[in-house]
Structures are given as structure tokens and as C-alpha cells.
Amino acid sequence: DSGVTQTPKHLITATGQRVTLRCSPRSGDLSVYWYQQSLDQGLQFLIQYYNGEERAKGNILERFSAQQFPDLHSELNLSSLELGDSALYFCASSVDPGNTEAFFGQGTRLTVV
Amino acid sequence: DQQVKQNSPSLSVQEGRISILNCDYTNSMFDYFLWYKKYPAEGPTFLISISSIKDKNEDGRFTVFLNKSAKHLSLHIVPSQPGDSAVYFCAASASGGSARQLTFGSGTQLTVLP
Fold first, then answer.
1. CA B61, A98, A92, B10: dihedral to nearest 10 degrees?
2. What is the pLDDT of residues A91-104, one digit of tens each?
3. Interface contact A81, partner B, CB < 8 A
């Protein structure tokens, strides 16, 4: 158990809909990362937050947004969903933004039908 | 453009033998490299890392080698055990300001046969 909790584990939704994925980081970790893993692909970095503020952006679509709350949990919002958004979404956390040994949650599997 | 490449999607090895997983990168700004292991229905777990100032790092049965001139790293597992069967991801990071994010390869499925 990495200490990073992601909910829900599975999500099935229709095209055009909006979903929210939730992540609780390890106790004491201030930095949260979101990654997307599509079929047969490596993990693609989406966005990083540190202590409530956006710190770095990767290949995140404009239809996607994220935030980190004062209690340090984070949410990833995916809107106007398309079939191609079906993927595993991982959240990871680390103590600070410079620490690259991140701890991953077990992921949320999103299926868009 | 894939900056971190794992060209072998799968590898099978007999128990007790050496497993060698390879990874190539293109971005010369990468200065920290990690290997993660992932079991089905779980998130990736950190295995071992190496800084660009070193060419080798060892932790028990796991050794990572870095060849900066070739932009190549490899993970050696000796001896391989059936419990090592998992997907192994190579990842790299570049120092840039105060934020770091990992660029992952597509993974190699290692199967250790008993």
C-alpha cells in the first residue's frame, strides 16, 4: 500500500459527459501529480500541484482541469469526454516538488462508451 | 515524440537467470532516472534510481546501469524470481526550476518462468 488513495477505482460514462477523479496523497506529501496511461502507452504526465498551487503542466487537454485543496487532496476534472479519453488515470504524491521518487495510487480506470 | 523508449514490450526469463531490461532516452536534459515496477490492478512502485553523475547503482538483486554517451540505461535483476513478473517502467526527469515531472517509457512486461 503506497498510502495514496484514488477514488473511484472504475468509472464508466458516456461521451460528452463530465467526471471527477479524486486523489488523497500520502500523509505529509505536499506535491500531487496526475498521469494518464492509455492502452499500450507509457504514463503521460498531465499536471502537478504543490501545496495548493499548480506547479507544472504536461500534455493536459483544455477539456481537463485539476485542483488541489487546502487539505491537500486533489481532483482531476474531465469534461466533454471522448472515446479516446478511456485510460487509466494515476495520481502520485511526493514530499516536495523536487522529489522524483513519487508514490502512486492504484489508479482510476475510466471507460468512455 | 517519445523521449523515453522501451523497445521490448515483453521479456521472458527462466527463474534464477539474469533479466536485463533496456531503456533509451533522447532528451540530454534528463539527469535522473528511475525504474518502477507495476503489478496488475496496482499503481507503479518505485524500484531503483540513478543520478546522471553515476554510472551504476545497486540495491540487492537489482542494478541499474547508465551509459550517458549512448543515452541508454538498463536494469539487471539477478537472480530473477517468479515474483519479479510485472511490467517495468523506465522513467526520466530533468531538473528545471523547482518542479520535476517524470517522463515514462511504455513499459516492458517481464515474465519469470519457474
1. -40
2. 999 987 776 678 99
3. no
